Known about the structure:
The chain is α+β, with helices and mostly antiparallel strands. 36% of the residues lie in helices and 29% in strands. A four-stranded antiparallel sheet has the order 6-5-8-9. It has a three-stranded antiparallel sheet with strand order 3-4-7. A two-stranded antiparallel ribbon has the order 1-2.
Amino acid sequence: MMELHQRFSKVLLLTGALAMLALAPACSPPQIDPSKKTIPTDSDQWQKELGPTLEQLPESDQQLLSRYMLRMKLSEAYESGAMPRTTIKQALIQQREYERLHPNNPTGQKSPIATNQHALTAKYPVALLPVKSSDSDSLNQVKLQFMLSNHGDIAIQSFKGTLTMQDIHLKQGKSFSVPLTDFDPPIKPEQSGKIIIESSIEDINVMRAIRNTKDMTIEITEGTLVLEDGQKIKFGESLVK
């Protein structure tokens, strides 16, 4: 009888232990949704604080969040205290929308072409000589004379492309197409040469702007300069295909 009682006690203990194991997961604290975690304002803490959380996300969201953080890093938006905290969920929403609008540049990386374009504009600046005309003219066949300066080391042989005029009095820039123009003689370093074209201008504000070039800028936005040694300088080429 004693042996039977001992066996029964052991069964009860084992049953109780199994029951406690079965109940243990239910008693553990609920898992925190990783999408609700905030991104530290200090980008130096991202790896340390977000590493384990990143592993809980689906692979596609991991990549999306990585591109978001790289975009923020490149834009220098995340410096200590620079902007309020954003949750991972909010970051994913923002990044999806950003990539929808910029499918060819998901990280917002600045293309070297932008820097090169500014350098070329400074190296080969263009100015417009003022044009005289009447305010009453609504349609003008105007002869425009642009001055192309050469701050490079090699003479300029020819140019073909587009010049764009910007002025504080114009809502948008005005572009002028320039056919192939050969310079005879070539424009030597630290000298200037003329580009002459004819254009029909209907906008009276454009007419006023080209008569007073005080607040005007002219840039080569597209085209090719051919130097005397045969080298070709390209303007406005995009690196994103």
